[in-house]
Structures are given as structure tokens and as C-alpha cells.
Amino acid sequence: MSLQVSKNGDVVVIEVDGQLIVGNRQELKQRVLDEAEGGARKILIDFARAGYIDSSGLGVLVSLAKRMRELGGDLRLANLNDDLQTLFELTKLDSLFQIADTRERALESF
Amino acid sequence: MSELARVLDAFSEAYGCGAVLWTQAGADAPLEVAATSGGDVTPPARAELGATDGAPEDQVRERATALGRQLVARIPGRTRAWLGVGPVADDDGDAMRWMRVLVPVLAQMLQSQWEARRATDELAERYEEINLLYSISEILGRTVTLEEAARTILMEVAETVGAEYGALLVHDAVSGLLRPVTALRVAGAATAIPIPIDEAVSVTARVFRTRRALLVNAGVLESEYEASFREGAMLSVPIVWTTPDGGIPLGVVSLSGRRGGFGFTAGDEKLVAAVGSQIGTAIQNARLVRASIDQERLASEMRLAHDLQMRLLPSGAAVAPDAMCAARVEAADGVGGDFYNLFRLGGGRTGVLVGDVSSHGYRAALIMALVMSASAIHAQTTADPAETVQALLATLEEELHETEMFLSLCYAVIDRDAGTLRWTNSGHPHAFVIGADGTVTRLEATDPPLGLGPDALHAAARPWKADDLLVIFTDGVSDARDARGKALGEKRVLDVLTARRRELPSRIVDGVFALVEGHMGRNRPHDDQAVVVLRSS
Questions:
Q1: Is the Cβ pair A54, B445 closer than 8 Å?
Q2: What is the ipTM of this complex?
């Protein structure tokens, strides 16, 4: 997995390339926490290039979303593929996140 | 009679006066008679000794002795030696000429003696070296701990070079310290302390950094870090593990307090440096043995933990005669986070709980054990699945928060007599009812996984027919990967379940695992796998 970080206005966009799994989840967690430490309050994680998220990866996303809310910010998701979208729906995790079809819609929603 | 004495005798016989050869062990040592054929053997005073260079005439002195005039000449070469010829008459002009003939002969003989002695010393030194290498080879063959290897090696090396004190220190890459594994301490000194590898004064640290042996005299580079094993001069040598790609520095052996008050020699340095790589091999060997023992112990503990975990899981017979149930859990890491529990709730009601703790291994297994024990209590207090899981969450909440873990969990309660199935599904994606006609109905999640979502849980209900099949499996089944990394997929699992829906639950479970194993081939599962199949009796 690799992470590409960019800024769009006051939104920090983190694009996940590859699988978000137990072995690399801390990398994403640390990156988001670093951005938050730097003052970012709006984080968008773009999964356009991500094929798979395991249960540990899901846990990190929820943990980060909670942390951002505690900081008065927001963490949103975009571009989940069909399998990931289904996974979020089947596990009811879609009730915990604001998820957009595209990066543009996600940016507009902030 | 020595060869030198024979030559002096021949000289005296030919020339008619005595000759004496004195030698000196060091610049400050007294002169001693090495051979004589007569004449005054009293050693000359410093001023009476011939010079070592300059014109031939300058290299000869004359002195008055009790027996008469004596000429004294320095013998050139590595041995400090002087020749005295006399008594000679004051007008004996041939005396100088004869000396010029004799001095080169004696010089050549002394040089030959020096080379023979050196060869003997070298041989003795080689013997010591070979003996030390042999001792270390023995240690390599029988040592099982790093401490034992280090202690024995340090004592052998110290004994060989005559050092009373010393320490063998091994590099700890995590802390950046050279940690003393064993030490021969100065009497009354405190325990040897670790030395930071960037310590400026320490000889030991310097040797580790430069990977070069260092021999320092007393009073030079004295560091408090080495106070416990240094007294006077110190010899430090790097310990290197030689690999095909070069050498990896592992530590340092430092020696001090050479017996007899003499300093260490270049020969000592050469000897200890020669065994540095042997010591490195011994240390690496001991480390590998320890790692192997630790790994074996861990594997043994994992097997025990796995057996214990499997014993926590109930047999399908636990819900008989109200239901027929079969279940199997395959843990990816010896111990895992997938589990199930079965409850006879009375009145024809049966409870089936399947869970998947995020992650696997020890921590997941501990959460699993906690759920198993707590669910057995809470399930008996109410037949409402939401209340049971709510109570379970209250028990687990603190543990989940502290460990940053969560679990998906589906708890279904079948009331055979009332014909209902009620369930609470906290984020578990693979829970189904398969009808007699092959219809597959998913038991939708009612809440996110435990530990992630809101505290208030929900329940859902649907009709339950006598020939319905309840099937719950975990994502380790549908996500099982083949050699190319392709997931098995939920649909193929459901196809097998549907096709075999009329078979005994145990046969259905076997069918699912046959599908999973066939798909994975030689691949090892990356996640735990659990399947539970239940039919009302």
C-alpha cells in the first residue's frame, strides 16, 4: 500500500493505493494523525485505487473517524469499489461514515 | 661450548689476546657476558661503549682495564652486543684491523641467533593461537547460551595473553549500547555497565565504531565506563561475524591488567584480533541456539493455546435434541479470533452465536475467551438476542477500548415451537437462512461491529420453518485466497451450501471446508475460518 497526500482547499485528500490490511494500517493511521496534528480538520480518504480492506483496516478507519470528530473535524470516504461498498453496507459501517461515489462529490460535501 | 665461544677462542689463538662478547637485553638493562676467550670481562661503562653508527674508527673505544688496554666495539644488528679485545699493547696497530675482521663475523652470528630465536617465539605464539582456536572451537560445539560462550571465551583469551581483567561486550542495536555479557572485574569494582557506542573516551566504544583493534597505554583514554575491568594498559579488539557479504560487528573484547606489569604486545593484539571472528561466530551461534529454543517454546505454547481454545468451543451435541448442529473453526495463527457458541435456552429455543474478533493471534484469542465465558452467562438470562449481546458488550467494552479491537458478532435465537428466528447482527456479513427450496436469505446486520458503533443494539426477526437451515460463516472462508491471490467469494460458498442443504449439518460443513481447501491449494489461510450450520430437529 502507498499513500498519496494532496490538499484541496482546506481538505486533506489521502489516496490509498493497494490493500489496507493489518500489516500497513498503522501507516494510514499515523499519516492521518500527523495531518490532524498539523491542523487539518477535514480529511478525505479516497479508495479509488484500493481493492481490499480487511477487518483491521476497517477498525482503523472507524478509530480515525472518531478521533477526527473528537477534534471537531470530519473524516469522509470516497470511491469505494462495489465489493468495499457492499462490505460497508453488510457490516453497517456505512452508518458510521459519510461515503461519496466520487472525490468531487466528497469534496463538495464538506 | 657455544659457536660464539669457539670463534672467540679461534681469534685468541690466532691473534694472541683475549676477547669478550657482552650482550644487553634492553637499553637500561645491564651488560652480560655472552662468551669469552680471556681478557677483562668487567662490563664497560656507558661512555666506554662504541657508537652504533659513524665512521669505523668512531665505533671503537678503548679503555684501561686491570689487565691492560682493551678495545671495545659495538656489534651492528638487532642484538645489543659489544666486543672487547685485549689486552693489547699501545703500539699494536694490527688490533684495530683484526677487530674489523671479527666484528662482521660476530654480527652475522648474532643475527642468525636472533632469527632462530624469533622463529622459536613465532612457533610458540602460533602454538598458543592454535590452542586458543581449538578451545574456542570446542566452546562452539558445546555451548548453548550466549553468556556461557562469552564467559568461557573471555577466560580463555585472557589466560592466553596473560590479562587479569577484561570484558566481552555485545552490541544491542535497539538501545545503541555495548552491553557487558561477562567481565573479569578488578577486585572491589562495581558491575560492568553498558557503554554507549558513541561514547567519546571509551576505548571499547571507539574500537566498535572503527572496527579496528586498539592498544593503549596506562593513563590513555581512561573512561569511567571501563573502570570496572581496566587497570593500566588496555587491548580492545572488535568482534566480527564474518558473512559472505562482509563482516557484521557484534561487539568488543577488551583486556587489561597484564600479569607481570608488562604492557600488551603487538603479538597479543594480533592473536586476539585473529580470534575476533571466532568469537563472533560463537556469539552468533549462541544467539541462533537461543532463538531456536525460544521459537520452539513459543510454538509449543501456541499448540497448547490452540488446544485450549478449541476446547472452549462446544460440540454440536450441546443443542441436541432441539437442533442438529455442526461447526468447525480453523485458526490462521495457531490461536485465532473466530469462534462460536451454542445454547439450549429451554422451551425448544436454541441460541447460536458466531463472532470474528478483528485480527487474530493471542490478543484476539483472549477477547474470544472472554466472549465465550460471558455469553454463556448472559444467554441464560434472557431469550432476547439484543439484550444478550447488549449485556455482552457491557462486559467487553473496556477490553475492546483498551485493545483498540472490535468484533463482528451474530447471535440468532431460534424458537422452533413458535416458528420464529430473532437475531442481533453486529456487523457480521455472512449469516443466512437457506430454505428447503434453496432460497437464500441474508440475516442483515442490525448494527456496526461491537466496539465501533453506538451502544444501543437492535434485533430483527423472521419466520423459521422446520426444514430451514441456519448458516453463519466468517470472512476467512469467503476471503480464502488461491495461489494468485484471488478470493473464493461468498457466492461459491453459498452455492455449495445450497446444493448440500438437505444433507446432515456435519456433511455440509465438510463440504464448505473441502471447497475452501481446494481453492487455497497449498496457500496458508491468512485469516481464521469458521462455519456453523444448524437445523431444527
A1: no
A2: 0.82
